[in-house]
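Allow me, if you will, to draw on your knowledge of protein folds for a short while. I have a record of one protein: its chain in single-letter code and its fold written as discrete structure tokens. I remain grateful for any guidance, and I place the record below:
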Amino acid sequence: MLKVENVTKYYGDFKAVDKLSFTVNKGEIFGLLGVNGAGKTTTFRMIMGLLDKTEGNITLDGKEINYSVTDDIGFLTEERSLLTKLTVKEQAIYFGALKGMSDDLIIERLDKLLKKFGIEEYKNKKIKELSKGNQQKIQFITAILNEPKLLILDEPFAGLDPFNIELFKEEILNLSKKGSIIIFSSHRMDHVELFCKKLVVLVNGKSVLSGNIKEIKESYMKKNIIIKGNIDIEKLKKISGVEEVIENSLQYEVKISNKDVVDSVFKYISKCENITKFVVEEPSLNEIFISKVGESYEK
């Protein structure tokens, strides 16, 4: 278990992280989200022991994280961190050696992962000769060569097409099934919803939203109604509690302030003709994220 307890970090007088707490159990994929400058990178660095915290505790399986446990940690940074003049094989041996792995084990796992990601032919090519997407694959492979107990993924899908996102997704889920603790960060909320059951949203270093994603979405007052059929948009907009009506080519998305408005909308729709769809949906994680971040900046 990774446990972050009341962690605060100051840079001089600037408070980058403010009393942050969360736990991630073995095999869980946890979302750590926030806009740029929210404190995510500082949190990552404190978790890995690269930065000293000002206050609080961070433990992995009950032990403070230091150089005695860093061999069990993997980190994929948002920025490219590859040595571009090295070959893929040399890069893997370098990173694997830093994690205390033998050359034989490094090559064994490298060959298996290169095959899985369909890039076996690049084993002896220099990093700088690869496309951005294939460099991202190599960066991911080097982050998981040690089959980490704790894996931090910061924007892991950057530069990837949908096919390769699926390959990454499969391997991330595979690591989770094997028991890895995974912290996942992305600006793409749809990517977060692919994996994470729990999350924390940071604004100015402080948690403004945390918990189980399903429960967060269910408890969020604002809902969406999807309607397909012949309706009068202006009449719909006049219903109390209807905040917005978005017209798509095939249907309408009605944003309402709370679930009590559903009955009023349904009452109007029941008088309309050719209604073939009326579905009440939970808001997307993206909508909730924007709302909570916006509320925090307004305070």
